[in-house]
Amino acid sequence: MTRLAELRKKIVEKTKKKVEEVYTERDRYIIQAIEALDDLDAAYNLLVERLREWYGLHFPEVNQLVKDHEKFVALVADVGARSKMDADVLEQVLGEKLAHRVAEAAKDSMGTVLEGEDLKMIQDFAARVRELREMRERLADYIREQMKEIAPNTAAVAGPLLGARLLSKAGGLKKLAMLPASTIQVLGAEKALFKHLVKGTPPPKHGLLFQHPLVRNAKKWQRGKIARTIAAKLAIAAREDYFGGKNISDKLLAEIEERVREIKEKYPNPPKRSKSYRKCKRAKGKKKGKKR
């Protein structure tokens, strides 16, 4: 065997070992699971919209009355034809108040008659859509359990599902642990960041972190500061999960809670825009008008 052949053999063996190491990392399973979860959400919403349009031929008024997708699917799968929709039957699916409204609407509906094979097929379709939702919930439970085991600090700070999405976006726990807090803050907002760098638009204040309840439920002018705080603690949490292995989630959550309280007390009102900022906005508006 020549030297070149030996070198090639060693390189191939080393590459195989690296690939095996990557595939044996358990966070890879979480990444696939969270991406599958997002695919299921998209498929579920698409199929429910199709079911609403299909069933709307028979009972169009119900789409305005039953906004909740899960209740609507259960209504079609379990009850079916509007001729069977009396208040007592509907209460088990929709609750007392909504059941009476739907029962009254069913009496005077302008929809077509639905029976035989048409009814059977729509109900069967609704049952399959409900099974898809149940599968989604089982997958979400699996992700929560795995995140608590593999990345307990990240799961505690971000929440298991959001933490899994951050892992997916970063490319794994190791890569997430290597990222600075400023990058974690804007993960998922790459398009807005690129637009800021190229066109000078305002920089994004958060990406996927907008899904965090502390950010989403905060006032608009407080979100950037809260997202920055959470990103800073997530950077520590990811490094501890990957390198340390200690559970410091209680300490991190306490620090986040204290900092969020300070932000809300310090910035209760929106900031006033300076004169230079307003002039800049007017100048940009005039430039856009000239281009048109």
What does this 3D model show about the protein?
- The chain folds into two domains: 7-144, Helix Hairpins (Orthogonal Bundle), CATH 1.10.287.4070; 152-270, Orthogonal Bundle (Serum Albumin, Chain A, Domain 1).
- The mean pLDDT is 87.
- Helices cover 76% and strands 0% of the residues.
- The longest helix is centred in the middle third of the chain and has 35 residues, at 116-150.
- Helix 2 packs across helix 9, helix 7 crosses helix 8 (152-158) and helix 14 (220-244) runs antiparallel to helix 15.
- With 292 residues, the protein is an all-alpha fold.
- The chain contains 16 helices and no strands.
Summary tags:
292 residues; mainly alpha; Helix Hairpins; Serum Albumin, Chain A, Domain 1; 2 domains; 16 helices; 76% helix; 0% strand
The beta-strand count equals: 0
- What is the gyration radius calculated from CA atoms? 26 Å
* Count, helices: 16
% residues in beta strands = under 5%
> Architecture of the largest domain, CATH level 2?
Orthogonal Bundle
Major beta sheet, specifics? none
